[in-house]
Amino acid sequence: MKYVLDTHTHTIASGHAYSTIDEMAKAASERNLEVLAITEHAPKMPGSCQEIYFSNLKVVAREKFGVQLLFGVELNIMDYNGTVDLSEHLLKQMELVIASMHTPCVPHGTIEQNMSAFIGAMKNPYVNIIGHPDDGKYPVNYEELVLAAKEHHKLLEVNNNSLMPHSFRENARENDITMLQYCKKYQVPVVVGSDAHYVDYVGRHQEAYAIFEEIDFPERLVANADKELLYSFLTNK
Ligand SMILES: [Zn+2]
Ligand SMILES: [Zn+2]
């Protein structure tokens, strides 16, 4: 199986990540990725870049070291309606948009509250990917989540960072397996993101891929294997 893209990474601009765009792109090239998305945390994450950062991304080359770069954002879902923290005129310019729930930005809700938050974000036409829905700190109903992703044409992320020993997310492995079983049942694609906050982790997906093998998850439902499958979820761009 050949995987060619990483849809979720952060550079120094995110405030708690430690490599530059060029360092990340070079690493992606060395690891044979064809596409790398740089998705800085949106402004409500403490220490992250402000709107002006997202407004000037046109100055950056879209190809480096033979890797296609997509410049996007990881939005913070701010409430249980799915409100996000970047203005619409900037969202329109983003090449890939993840929406996630983060402890500094929204309280850990009940299943009902978290589902309402995620579904609210899925109704946002600019959102392409739901970030780390594996985090047990924000419990969800995985069957409903998968069906909602199908209905609203969004990708669900399998976040490799959640599966690392240093992760502060809860129950990720178990939750990913549950989610993937429903994705298999309802034929809903997923995408693996490294969520790299340092160059060493660019393209690091092996923990997620090991789960795919373990549960015999079909390759045709993995957007990392097929650029065109990913792009079919970015059609609002
Ligand atoms: Zn995140
Ligand atoms: Zn992230």
Structure overview:
Helices cover 31% and strands 15% of the residues. The protein has 237 residues and is α/β, with parallel strands linked by helices. The chain has a single domain (5-232), classed as TIM Barrel (Alpha-Beta Barrel), CATH 3.20.20.140. The mean pLDDT is 97. The protein is built from eight helices and eight strands; from the N terminus they run βαβαββαβαβαβαβαα. Strands 1, 2, 3, 4, 5, 6, 7 and 8 form an eight-stranded mixed β-sheet that branches. Residues 8, 10, 74, 195 line the site of one zinc ion.
Write the layout of secondary structure elements.
Elements: E1 5-6, H1 21-30, E2 35-41, H2 51-55, E3 63-64, E4 67-76, H3 88-91, E5 97-100, H4 111-122, E6 129-130, H5 142-152, E7 155-159, H6 172-186, E8 190-193, H7 206-215, H8 227-232
Parallel strand pairs: 1-2, 2-4, 4-5, 5-6, 6-7, 7-8
Antiparallel strand pairs: 3-4
Helix pairs in contact: 4-5, 5-6
One zinc ion binds at residues 74, 100, 102, 131-132.
